[in-house]
Amino acid sequence: MDYTAQLDSAIARLHDEGRYRTFIDIERRNGHFPHAVRTRPDGSQQNITVWCGNDYLGMGQHPVVLNAMHEAVDAAGAGSGGTRNISGTTVYHKRLEAELADLHGKEAALLFTSAYIANDATLSTLPKLFPGLIIYSDALNHASMIEGVRRNGGAKRIFRHNDVAHLRELLEADDPKAPKLIAFESVYSMDGDFGPIEEICDLADEFGALTYIDEVHAVGMYGPRGGGLTERDRLAHRIDIINGTLAKAYGVMGGYIAASAKMCDAVRSYAPGFIFTTSLPPAVAAGAVASVAHLKTAQDLRDQHQTQAKILKLRLKGMGLPLIDHGSHIVPVIVGNPVHTKKLSDMLLDDYGIYVQPINFPTVPRGTERLRFTPSPVHGPDEMNRLVQAMDELWSHCALNRAELAG
Ligand code: PLP
Known about the structure:
Layout: H1 3-16, E1 25-28, E2 35-39, E3 45-50, H2 63-76, H3 91-104, E4 108-112, H4 115-129, E5 134-138, H5 143-151, E6 155-159, H6 164-173, E7 180-185, H7 197-207, E8 210-214, H8 229-232, E9 241-245, E10 255-259, H9 261-270, H10 272-275, H11 282-295, H12 299-318, E11 331-334, H13 338-352, E12 354-355, E13 358-359, E14 370-373, H14 381-397
Parallel strand pairs: 3-12, 5-6, 5-7, 7-8, 8-9
Antiparallel strand pairs: 1-2, 2-3, 4-10, 9-10, 11-14, 13-14
Helix pairs in contact: 2-11, 3-11, 4-5, 6-7, 13-14
Bound molecules: pyridoxal-5'-phosphate (PLP).
């Protein structure tokens, strides 16, 4: 076997399809987000504005978070030194789990090193707890949920995205006595559309199913205390397991589930992705505690965030760009071709210092390749003007269509 040739051909396939991923090397500068410095491939530097990050509220450089992290590093040092079971459970981890349980009005929360791991570990473990479990999973669920469902070896049914009639059909077709779980998201990050939470909860009640929601793109940003869409819509009590991240709106790192004390205890006891890995560094947990606590009362930031998204969408729509608008904070502009998307992204970066990475298959379906903008409260009017002007110029330059896709 010529292993090198195999690797070459795997990489060549991605190049051929125009979806080979190139990392942009950036240095975040504390206190200056969304401004950062890029190191070009030739080693030279360029000032850029980041328009595609998921530090949605700028908390990654917020003094409240940084001070808490500094204090914790001084007090506790760098790493936790162990798995949760073997000396890696510190006062910071306990505090964070209490803060998160409170955020979602649940009895308990369980920390993981990321929301990816939280989804994968929890969903792959649930069939061990509920033998014969059938998982009904939305077709556009995040890769981490798909992976967890795929790996768990149990039965799965995929329902068409947000299609509760299809979900009902699938539920009706199965044994009424079988344990069931419906897994879905509150905000789908690539189109920025919302899951039909209440309707899914109604179906879950009717069919005796558990509910599992990924609120990764909503926690911190929606709900009066940042508890996500389930808090905003007063539905958290109807969801059995809420998954969230500490890496996006909260600006730090880590993931979690919030659920009943019994559910968390069982997942904690059975999930290899929880048990056999070192816990988060105490300073990371401390930063997350500060961020979650801060955003529980920072409605002004949430309001500014929504306003920024509305303004950007209005302006891009005004120029006739094909924008998907479902009323969330995510602003996807459809280009519809991987090569054009990459080219536009490269030109925005090289010619305008605007960083928005191309989004291609398999993250989104082929033919819907896009640029996905994430305006935040720390993107000022000048940054917005520069972005809108650049998009206008490039759209004309590349002779792309200006036709709105209805949201
Ligand atoms: N769930 C969704 C819907 C996501 O978009 C992501 C990350 O992009 C994750 C989970 C994973 O979150 P984390 O970055 O904390 O692993």
